[in-house]
Amino acid sequence: MVFLRYLLLWGGAGMIAAAVAILARDFYLAAKHKQALATAATVPVPDAPEIHWRQDWRNAIALALLAWVPILLSYGIVVVPSGTAGVLVSQTSGTLPGTLYPGAHFVTPPADNVVLFDTRDQLFTTGELENSDKEAKQAGAAEPLRVQAKEGLIIGLAITVRYRLDPKHLDYIQANLPQPVEKEIVPPVVASAWRELVPNYTVRDVFATKREEIRKKAADQITQKLAADGIVVKEVMLRDIQLPPEYAKGLESLLLKEQQNDQMGVQTEIQEKQVRISELEAEATKAQQVKQAEGNAQVKVLEAKAEADAMQYTLPLKQKQIEESKLEAEARKEATVENAEANAQATVKNAEAMAQAKVLDSKAEMERRKLLAEAEADRIRVTAVADAERMRNEGAILKGNPLLINKIVAEKLSDKLQIMMVPSDGKFFFANDVLKSMNMANHGGEADQAEEK
Fold first, then answer.
1. Alpha-carbon span 53 to 30, nearest angstrom
2. What CA–CA distance (Å, rounded) separates 121 from 182?
3. Which end of the chain is more exposed for a tag (fewer CB within 10 A), N or C?
4. 8 Å CB contact between 197 and 219
5. CA 231 to CA 213: how far, in whole Å?
6. CB-based contacts of 115: which residues, under 8 Å, 6+ apart?
7. Residue 394: band (very low, low, confident or very high) from pLDDT cuts 50, 70, 90
8. How far apart are the C-alpha atoms of 356 and 212, rounded to whole Å?
9. What is the C-alpha to C-alpha distance for residues 174 and 113, in angstroms, rounded to an integer?
């Protein structure tokens, strides 16, 4: 909506600029026409055409008049900014009821206009503010509100009232209250409320004892009065009170005396409490000693009773202990005798067991030696049988192969001899004849031996 308003304004301004441009063009052409006429009058040109020119005023005027239409329409769109509210005021009917809240609104431009009010919280302040704003200090702080107390003394009050205008009653405020409200209505109402209320109290009441009570009553009165005019009061603060110089000095001396009096009273109470503490400590010590003596006496009585009772039980216990000692001695004696008998029997049994063990050891040794002799005999017998068998086998082998004797003898003679074994019936071998001759010789010798036998 805001864009539409500015668009209408720019359109109207553009149309006016176009009308001005048309008029400027007409004036320029008119000047050119006059210059051409002057030149033609001075230097006549044969067969020159006549120049006719006419200014177009009607188009420029129509365009200028038409430009006011979008301008008026743009003024008919009113934008109420945030934090404010408006009231529609008619030139014919006066203030119209209702409130225009933030946003765009349509009005009749010539007949109506919108009056804006600030609906945010505002402050009415008297007296100096507790801040460090240099500009505010240079501009000068507001004077405190001067009111008269019950004694007739003048007191300065630093007051802050936080309020805001009620948007629902802006039409009433515009039609009936003087403007601006924050200067014409709020200060007088606040000042009158405090000036009506404070004279009913003394300076001491206002300064100390009934300060909060006075503030609450003033806040109620201010809220009630301003609410009737469409002003909402949120808070009334009494920040500071400025006392008269004479009263301040007297109050200071009075406070010093009261402080001294209070100090003396405190010291007196402390001393009284110390005396009372001493008395209580003495009483406590006495009661403690009495209780301790009574406790000692009761302890002694209880000890005597306990000893008497103990003696009643001690004699039977002693007799039982003597009997138990006798029984234990007899039991130890019997146990000693039994242990001696058991030891003797154990010694006899140990001797018998050792003798039997020796007999068994000798029998076992004889059996072992017998078994060893039998094993040695069996070994010798088996060895003899094996040697005989080996001898028979060797004899059979030597009988079948007499040449082995030569081989064995050759091996025994020297370890440097090399022996070769060849078949006796081999062919194409150079030692066959030698071997055959040796065989024949051997056989011949054997035959001779056989004949000799």
1. 8
2. 11
3. C
4. no
5. 23
6. 86, 87, 89, 174
7. confident
8. 125
9. 13
Q: What token pair was written down for 412? A: 């025994």
The DSSP line for 110-122 is TTEEEEEEE-S-E
Q: Is 328 exposed, middle or buried (0-12, 13-18, 19+ CB in 10 A)?
A: exposed
Closest CA to 186 of 230, 237, 134, 146: 230
Q: Write down the pTM of the prediction.
A: 0.45
DSSP letters along 163-198, please? EEE-GGGHHHHHHHS-SSHHHHTHHHHHHHHHHHHG
Placement of tokens 């864009």 in the chain: 3
The one-letter amino acid code at 272 reads: E
Exposure of 57 in the CB half-sphere (CA atoms within 13 A):
2
Q: What is the pLDDT of residues 17-65, one digit of tens each?
A: 766 776 777 677 777 767 777 776 665 545 444 444 455 667 667 766 6
Angle at 67 between CA 111 and CA 76, to 5 degrees: 30
CA 89 to chain centre: 60
- Cα–Cα distances (Å) from 163 to 12, 168, 186, 395, in that order, read 43, 15, 9, 154
- Which contacts qualify for 285-294: CB closer than 8 Å, 24 or more apart? none
